[in-house]
Specification:
Number of strands of chain A: 14
Radius of gyration of chain B: 22 Å
Helix content of chain B: 10-25%
Radius of gyration of chain A: 22 Å
CATH topology of the largest domain in chain A: Aspartate Aminotransferase, domain 2
CATH architecture of the largest domain in chain A: 3-Layer(aba) Sandwich
Number of strands of chain B: 16
Number of helices of chain B: 7
CATH class of the largest domain in chain A: Alpha Beta
CATH architecture of the largest domain in chain B: 3-Layer(aba) Sandwich
Distance between the termini of chain B: 34 Å
Number of domains of chain B: 3
Oligomer: heterodimer
Largest sheet of chain A: 7 strands, mixed
Structural class of chain A: alpha/beta
Distance between the termini of chain A: 35 Å
Chain lengths: 390, 362
């Protein structure tokens, strides 16, 4: 059976040209980038060339980029590395502000801070899935050390007003982190214009390999390591540099920079075709969250009267990969905490699907997906005890 | 697919027959809830544990079939766990497996399977199904392996559920199933059988109920009370009626000249009534919410063998319909009195291996 992949916010396949530079690096660059001999120097050169490509995508200086094992490590490093936890007896507590719609890679380091005594405020979005900057302003305290707000939401694609929020954070004397894992490679990103101090990205979300990511650390921003070892990455992230994966990330960044304007347009047209097709063919559906300011490849649609989990399985068996909610440890689906935070009723959150498009998708696939969705929804609703057509 | 031997063999057998199959595991209970019940931190070896999902996924991979874990946690809590707790607090001894079969597995789960394109579901139950052309009814019989027979837990299945269900293991014995597992090369061939209630660690249901109330922040009502004999004499105290079930001997904490058994629990006044073994004998019972499987609802008395708990040997009895409304209630008159007729358990009627139907003991 042919398989059509509509889950690019979960991960993307490695692109052919990324694969080529990756294999070449694995074959031709065996050295340790920290060694002084020529083998080491070659590795170091490739590493730094890759770093320059990534910083060109983000609009920062190469000295401001730390390679990590991925988005999760970048988020952990930014949050746990910038917020002091042991301030000593009598010292004022620090405080962190984040949002209820963050990825677990941000939410769970925040919970870890809470366990060690640092209070964390979780800001709720509006029904459109967007954080209101005024809510951040009202939550700022004198002791607020960090504000962390994602750039683009993984479930809805909603873009957050990061520049405005960063200005508020800085006025309040706090540092600003943004999880840009779902934005980098999908929309133009300029960390200087955003005004953030930390910005996380992940390679496998834009056609590089799993296991590589990076954290932008603004020059002068105070960041302590959270792992301890050698003096790699300017003593901010120990461990022998993963040169082949960094090279892959650099290549993916270069490709994204070149194709972004056209691909953004192409994907948003495809996404709109999918959205319009589903909404016009299938009754009792609607888009969750903001419809204008979002990543071009993402739509999140509710299908009242059914379980999103069943619809995902039904579509998968027809050859279409889409997603619903978030997987718990067993692999079963739990309702999306993002949709719940936006105020969706739990039934509607469970009845929602995320479609995220990417390089491999075309109009023919989108039309086939619309047909498959219409058929599967009709079948599931026929058996639904709660669905009665209007 | 529970990750155990039985459902894994079902998948292997159907695949060998050339059926197009999809493996599904129900996520019913979050084993990380109520962590105080498993101080060793091991949510293992029980249904829905990550280990079992791992095993089920491994079997699916071995067979090369699509496989999914589907989440029924909220339905399971509402329709199995809460009624289970309510029953114990009301002095009944529930059968959660039957509630799960009636309201989750052969209801919501069956609908999900059909919704994703399946025409039938197959499970690893030891029971046999047939169709009687004369009456137009689906019939159920005990599994060929009487020691593993699970029809006691399946008495609630309706005709439209049976029409979409297969029990491929009904004709096999457990040793044969293990042999099939080895023959099919299944990675779980040597896995031990599971015994207990899947969401209750170590079979300690009273500790589960206490932990559930603590988790939900509900201050336990006064559940402790007196242990009395049938004459009303107070013999001791107990920590809650939900710790006791009819016929129980252990855990009374009373020194007596002869063995004492629980003969009733009275939740209204928090009393546990104890007596001698012969006080447990009953010649009759009534059962409600009857579901008739292999025969139509009776309108006149019939002879049957009646099983009053899973481990009970079905006893000869005459079964009388009560009321005129299609025998939704019955009275069972045993030829010989039976020990420990327990409210909340089921009375399941057999004629030889044929399962006639069943209802809940009042």
């Amino acid at each position: 059976m042919r398989r059509f992949y509509f889950d690019h916010n979960a991960t993307t396949p490695v692109s052919q040209s990324v694969l080529e530079v990756l294999v070449a690096a694995l074959l031709e660059v065996p050295g340790n980038a920290s060694s002084i001999h020529q083998d080491g120097q070659l590795a170091k050169q490739r590493l730094e060339a890759a770093r320059r490509e990534v910083t060109a995508l983000l609009g920062c200086d190469p000295k401001e980029l730390v390679f990590t094992s991925g988005g999760t490590e970048a988020d952990n490093l930014a949050i746990l590395g910038s917020v002091a936890r042991d301030l000593g007896a009598g010292a004022p507590h620090s405080h962190v502000i984040t949002t209820a719609i963050e990825h677990p890679a941000v939410l769970n380091p925040c919970r870890e801070l809470e366990r060690s005594g640092v209070p964390v405020t979780y800001i709720l979005p509006g029904p459109d899935g967007v954080i209101e900057p005024g809510d951040i302003r009202r939550a700022i305290r004198p002791e607020t050390a960090l504000v962390s707000v994602m750039h683009a939401n993984n479930e809805t694609g909603a873009l957050q007003p990061i520049a405005e929020i960063a200005a508020i954070a800085h006025q309040g004397g706090a540092l600003m982190h943004s999880d840009g894992v779902q934005a980098a490679g999908k929309i133009p990103v300029d960390v200087r214009a955003l005004g953030v101090d930390f910005y996380s990205i992940s390679g496998h979300k834009f056609y590089a390999t799993k296991g590589i990511g990076a954290l932008y650390v603004k020059k002068g921003a105070n960041l302590r390591p959270i792992q301890f070892g050698g003096k790699h990455e300017r003593e901010r992230r120990p461990g022998t540099e993963n040169v082949p994966s960094a090279v892959a990330l650099g290549k993916a960044a270069a490709i994204a920079r070149g194709t972004l304007p056209i691909e953004t347009l192409r994907l948003s047209e495809l996404r709109d075709r999918l959205e319009t097709g589903i909404l016009s063919r299938v009754p009792d559906t609607g888009v969750n969250g903001v419809s204008h300011s979002r990543t071009p490849n993402t739509t999140n649609i509710y299908f009242d009267g059914l379980e999103g989990e069943a619809l995902v399985i039904s579509l998968d068996l027809k050859g279409f990969a889409v997603s619903s909610g978030s997987a718990c440890s067993s692999g079963a689906v739990e309702p999306s905490h993002v949709l719940l935070a936006m105020g969706l009723a739990p039934e509607r959150a469970r009845a929602s699907l995320r479609f995220s498009l990417g390089a491999s998708n075309n109009e023919e696939q989108v039309d086939a997906l619309i047909d498959a969705v219409a058929g599967s929804v009709a079948q599931l609703r026929k058996l639904s005890p709660t669905y009665t057509s209007a | 697919m529970s990750g155990g031997v039985d459902s894994s063999v079902v998948a292997g057998l159907l695949q060998r027959q050339g059926q197009r199959i999809v493996g599904l595991t129900m996520q019913l209970w979050n084993q990380r809830r109520l962590p105080e019940l498993t101080p060793e931190g091991g949510a293992t070896g029980r249904c829905c544990s990550l280990d079992d999902v791992y095993d089920a996924r491994h079997v699916a991979q071995h067979l090369g079939i699509p496989y999914y874990v589907v989440n029924f946690e909220s339905g399971f809590e509402e329709q199995v766990v809460k009624p289970f707790i309510d029953d114990y607090l009301s002095g009944r001894t529930p059968i959660p497996c039957t509630l799960c079969n009636n309201f989750i597995k052969f209801d919501q789960f069956l609908d999900l399977a059909e919704g994703v394109g399946a025409t039938r579901i197959a499970t690893g139950h030891y029971a046999r199904l047939g169709f009687d052309d004369a009456t137009g009814r689906y019939q159920m019989s005990r599994g060929a392996d009487h020691s593993k027979d699970q029809t006691y837990f399946l008495f609630g299945l309706k005709q439209e559920q049976l029409a979409r269900t297969d029990f491929p293991l009904g004709r096999y014995t457990k040793p044969q199933v293990r042999e099939l597992a080895r023959e099919l090369g299944l990675p779980v061939a040597a896995k031990p059988d599971s015994q207990e209630i899947c969401f209750v660690p170590n079979g300690d249901y009273a500790a589960f109920i206490d932990a559930y109330f603590r988790e939900r922040g509900i201050a336990p009502e006064k559940t402790q009370g007196e242990i009395r004999d049938r004459a009303g004499r107070v013999l001791g105290e107990h920590a809650g009626v939900h710790h006791f079930t009819v016929g129980q001997r252990r855990g009374l904490g009373i020194a007596a000249a002869e063995p004492l058994y629980v003969i009733a629990t009275e939740p209204a006044n928090q009393r546990v009534i104890v007596g001698r073994n012969e006080d447990l004998l009953r010649a009759t019972l009534t059962a409600k919410d009857m579901n008739w499987i292999s025969i139509a609802p009776i309108c006149s008395p019939i002879r049957a063998q009646v099983k009053i708990r899973n481990r009970h040997v079905a006893a000869d009895a005459t079964v009388w319909p009560l009321g005129s409304n299609g025998a939704t209630r019955i009275e069972v008159r045993f030829d010989e009195p039976q020990r420990a007729v327990t409210p909340g358990q089921a009375a399941v009627l057999y004629s030889g291996d044929l399962v006639l139907g069943g209802g809940w003991i009042e």
